[in-house]
Amino acid sequence: MFTSGTRQLLAKSNKLCLKSGSYLKTFSAKFTTCDLYALVEPTEPKVVTENSPGPNSLKIQAEISNFQDIRPMIFSTGIPFSSSFISSLPFCENSFSQISSIPLGYNHHAILDVCSSPEMVLSLANRPSLTLLPPTNWADKLQNIHMKVAPKGLTNVFNTVDGSSANDLAFKAAFIAYKEMRGLPDELSEQELSTSMDNASPGSPDLSILSFRNGFHGRTMSTLSATRTKPIHKVGIPAFKWPAVDFPQLRYPLEKFEKENAAEEKRCLDQVEHIIKTSKTPIAGLIVEPIPSEGGDLHASNQFFQKLRKITKDNGVVMIVDEVQTGVGATGKFWAHEYWELDTPPEIVTFSKKMQAAGFYHQAQLRPKIPMRQFNTWMGDPSRTLIAGAIISEIESQSLVEKTKATGDYLMSHLKPISIRYNKLVQNVRGKGTLVAFDCPTPEYRDMFVSLMRSEGVLIYACGNRSVRFRPALIFSKSHVNVFLPRFESVLNKMYKQLWS
């Protein structure tokens, strides 16, 4: 998708296009200004092949397969940005947005501007080790970009490469803080130092991270031990013997099942408290997604999370809120956990995806007492921080968080009546902002729906056992919803005729 600002950018002279990058050099060579206007954003998706992936994508898949396993590929996006990419993908892909990681659509002028700046060129050419040899303006970047949107009560940020490493190193922070959270001396004894080299206690203590079933937190060795979605993610991989508890499985409509849902949330909270108090390996941290996404876009009440926070606080357990997929405005608040209105903030909030940079915010008390216990070569990437700054500025100047909430409300106002008319296929509509999902009655019907939507030119994605999720960019608007809805109903009609006629 493209904004009006991008139209202005692409309509400028060829000289400006050349300044903005090699891909725009291709544009300036091939297209006139009028052509560029026409390529900005189509009014509707256009399907040019009968099946997905089409012949060109299959050819590209075969070429990549010579060097990498590319079997999960849906289709090729056309990068580098060819005219076919510009005229087709941005619309059909706006419900998915590169697994929720595209914040402003494709080729947004704010991001193109910062990418073509001299500061970006220098940061790419001279990537520093940010803890050993930071640039002189790094404190300014931290304060005016990352800390500008820091969750309330979190005064430090630790930069990483991606969401998995953000959660992985958040676990490490919880383990380092274990003694301090319980008022124990944090000095390291000679015995701890020596036994750690043999991966033995007490230097390598038996500590655990408690996670929720249906939660996804990454694919590194430690995050896989906390991930509880698809077996294929974990099978054959050695794992820490960490415990898991149930995430509430609410019944819909919520107003009809208040009593049952309250009992379900209590059941899950009782599990949390029981595990923390009885686990043979002490629980150093608990990780939870505000909306477990890969596991089926599950929701719980604000009261559930408030009580969860109290349990972790009372028991000296670091609470890690995984906002990799829910953060940066997607839910109608910048951070999804803002809805909870906690009395005390969580110790850690992780981020990635729509921020385009990654890492975790944390309370100052989690900063290790000994330097370099949390350390790596890069400690983030200044070029990604510059892009994050452009994203944050655009979100603020265009009120995109508020617009995302309004668009989400508009989408929900149509999906709920549709779920009544097509109740055999669309069930349990739920969401916050544009992080919206619904269930199909079976996994087979869900997969059929997703496939048929692609044939309509709309890329939408599955999650959980039988759920369908929306993950649009923040510039997804009511006009895009209006283009989506007739295609949505068209697919539902086709399925009804095929299944029940």
Could you characterize what this model shows?
The chain is of the alpha/beta class and 501 residues long. It has a domain at 163-178 and 204-396: 3-Layer(aba) Sandwich (Aspartate Aminotransferase, domain 2). Helix content is 44%, strand content 10%. The chain has 20 helices and 11 strands. The chain has helices spanning 4-11, 14-19, 22-30, 33-39, 55-65, 83-92, 97-100, 109-115, 118-125, 138-146, 163-176, 178-181, 190-196, 221-226, 258-278, 302-314, 382-397, 400-421, 443-455, 478-500; strands at 156-160, 208-212, 244-245, 283-288, 318-322, 348-351, 358-362, 427-432, 435-439, 461-463, 467-469. The strands form 2 sheets. It has a 7-stranded mixed sheet with strand order 1-7-6-5-4-2-3, with helices on both faces. A 4-stranded antiparallel sheet has the order 8-9-11-10, with helices on one face. Helix 19 (443-455) crosses helix 20 (478-500). The longest helix is centred in the last third of the chain and has 23 residues, at 478-500. The radius of gyration is 24 Å and the shape is globular.
Layout of secondary structure:
Layout: H1 4-11, H2 14-19, H3 22-30, H4 33-39, H5 55-65, H6 83-92, H7 97-100, H8 109-115, H9 118-125, H10 138-146, E1 156-160, H11 163-176, H12 178-181, H13 190-196, E2 208-212, H14 221-226, E3 244-245, H15 258-278, E4 283-288, H16 302-314, E5 318-322, E6 348-351, E7 358-362, H17 382-397, H18 400-421, E8 427-432, E9 435-439, H19 443-455, E10 461-463, E11 467-469, H20 478-500
Parallel strand pairs: 2-3, 2-4, 4-5, 5-6
Antiparallel strand pairs: 1-7, 6-7, 8-9, 9-11, 10-11
